[in-house]
Each structure stands twice: as structure tokens, then as C-alpha cells.
Amino acid sequence: MKKEYNDMINVNNPTHEAFLRGIGVPVELPHIERELTRLWGESAQEAGGSEVSRPSVTRVVLCNLVVLGRPERLDEVQVAHPCRAILLGLEEGRGQKVEAEVAATCHLPAPGRPQVCSEKIALFAAPEAQRLLPSAVRGLLEADLPVVVWWSQPPDDSERSELLAQLANDASRVLLDLPDPASDCTLEHLARFIEAHRLRYVHDLAWFGLTPWRDLIAQRFEPPNHRHLERLTSLTIRTRTAGDPLVNPPRISGLLAGWFAGQLGWTLEQRLQRPAAETHVRHPASTIDARYRDRAGRRVIHLTLCFELDPQAQPAQIDAVELEWEEPEAVVPGCYRIERVRPGHDLARLYVTSNNLCNLPGSATIPELDPTRRLLNALQASRNDPPFQAAWNQARQLLGPPDTPSTPSRPAPPTEPTRQS
Description:
Layout: H1 2-5, H2 15-20, E1 25-27, H3 32-47, E2 57-59, E3 64-68, H4 74-80, E4 84-90, E5 99-107, E6 115-125, H5 133-138, E7 147-151, H6 159-169, E8 173-176, H7 187-196, E9 202-204, H8 205-208, H9 211-220, E10 232-241, H10 251-264, E11 267-275, E12 286-293, E13 300-309, E14 317-325, E15 334-340, E16 347-353, E17 362-365, H11 371-380, H12 386-399
Parallel strand pairs: 2-6, 3-4, 3-7, 4-6, 7-8, 8-9, 10-13
Antiparallel strand pairs: 1-5, 5-6, 10-14, 11-12, 12-13, 14-15, 15-16, 16-17
Helix pairs in contact: 10-12
């Protein structure tokens, strides 16, 4: 892990030059703040001036970001969202001591403008010294700034998961950056871990991958067209996944279905998961059928989640969404379908059948947000996200084992889907 953060320091270069280049500078743990003050001062003095070739240095910190795993994306994140990053590495052979290095991440927004810089603090400890890391992190946090834990390993019974729980208790929020589906880690498993450790403000980055889909659907049903949502009779979501959906359905499909259910006040009555041999859908791996009641308890809504195996779909990707509703004085139901022109393509076709909506076919771009963009969207979003919490609770009931009752927290008051939702 250390090799990913650190190159050998060129002894011919001053320490502050290595620091600005992102090369790890070893420092004693108690002296980190003092050393950072010295390095920033020397760097600003050396790089100061109005010349385009030697822009001054501006240090920017928007939050504290505590990281374990996937450091190769950190520089890209810090360029877009400058922060104090505290990297945690567990390595054998380091005894009972925590070792530290510091480095800077800098970029030039435009010629002649100051360099925008933020810092990385890497802490290395052997597993037996892991207990020292939470207190070391607390001493390094920038005061009066949010503390965000970026976690990219499925929680289990290991010591690393215990470390996550300790760090999360001191954090403003936790961002789970996990594969979808995550190996040997279902949504129900994640929910139980969160409840067992009483973690607050936990967000699944799969939710932010749904932003283009939610925005496109919300646009279609903005007032006065939102009344069609009150007459919905069915919802179908087709998803490609590299995992076995019979064992671990992808979270992204459950969260999209949960968004509808949570925002429209649906109540789950029944769910049934069927293997491919029992379905009539083209090339499915499995299908989840569910029945909901609307907010008033009078109308039944049928939900179908179709999963298709695709080794290239990592993470899982939604290919189509179809809604049907009752049309007054019409023989056929109203229908709105969004479908990618081909699997994995950003372009999608929009089909509408309705007496009250524009029936002209259209198209839209639905980009598949990469993990870095999902993380940046999460960093810029509010930690209090009622639509996500409601979707998470609904997805847990939908994707969880049929014989295992879930204990969701109090859902947010139901509202109509909007662009902000």
C-alpha cells in the first residue's frame, strides 16, 4: 500500500519540492502538524510570485476525508474536491508503532492562477497496532470541517470492519464505495452491520449512479403530469449484472424501485423471486415479482425486476425502465418506457403511449457514472437525504430474504418524485 502513495525521495531535491510533487515525506506522528506548517510555508515562499511559470500556492480544504482502500483515485478526487485526506494502511512488520508520511496534491486551474493544493497524510500500522489509528485520526482532523469516511471494502467480521465502526462514530457521514453486487455482502448484510454499530448518515454510492435515471423520470412526471403517478399499475426494471442475482441481487435496481415506493408511499405486500426457467422474459437470470399497495391502500401496483447475466456489467447497469398507468376512457393503459439503444450505451430511446402526454418518440443520454463521479456527487450532496433513506428501507425489504423481516428506520414522509429527489 505504501508504494501507491510514495516514491523514493530524490536526495537532490529539497523536501518541500518532493512534498509539492506528491512524494511522501516521512514524519513522526506527533510532529505532523508542525511539519505541514513548515512545508506549506517553504512551498509558498519558493513558488510565490506573479510569473505564469511560477504561480503561488493556495491551500484549500473543504472537508476531512478518511480513506481505507482505492487510493489510486484519490488525486482525481482531491483535484475536484480539495480536502485533507487521511489514508490508513494496515501492513505487517511495523510493530506497535504508527508511521506517517505527508504529501500534497496540486493542480493549476488556469495559466497565471495560483496552484490549488490540498494534503495527504498517510498512516501505516501493523494489524496489532490498529487500535491506535482512531485516536491518531482524531488528532489530525481540521476543526469545524465535515469528517467523511470513504470505505471501499465490504464489512465483515475482520478487524478492518471494527476500524470502520470506530471511525464512523466520529464521522459526519460514511460513503460506502462497494462493488454492485458486492461479493458475499448483500444489502441486508450491509443494513445489519449499520444497525449493529448504530452508524448514522451512511450513503451507498450506488444511489448516486441512479441520478440520470431519476432525473429523466422526474422530468416526465413534473406537474401537471404527476397525476399519472397516482394511477400507476406496474413498474418494470431490467438490469444486467455480473453476479448471481438469485444469491445477491444488485443494489442499484432495488434502490431505483425503492425510490418509487418510498416517494409514492407504497407498501410491500408480497415478493417472489423466480429463476430463469420459470420466467417468460428474454434471457433473464432471474426475476423478482412484487406486489405493492398505494398510499391510500386501494390500488395494487405490480413490480418486476428482471436480471440478466453479463460478465461485463461491473458494476450492475440498468438497461430499461417501464411504467404503466390507467388511462381514463382509454382501451390500453398509458406507458412510458426508457430503454438503452444497446447494453452499456449512453443513448436511450423514450417511448410514450398516452392520451395526455406527448407521444412523439425521443431520446436522451443516460451516462453511466464512474465510481469517481459518484463519489464526487456524494461529497457535494447533503448528508441528510430523506429520498435515499426511504429508498434504502424499501430496497432492503424488496431484496432481502423473504423469511427475514427487516426493521427499517422511520421512512421520510412520502412525496412525489422531483428532480431534487
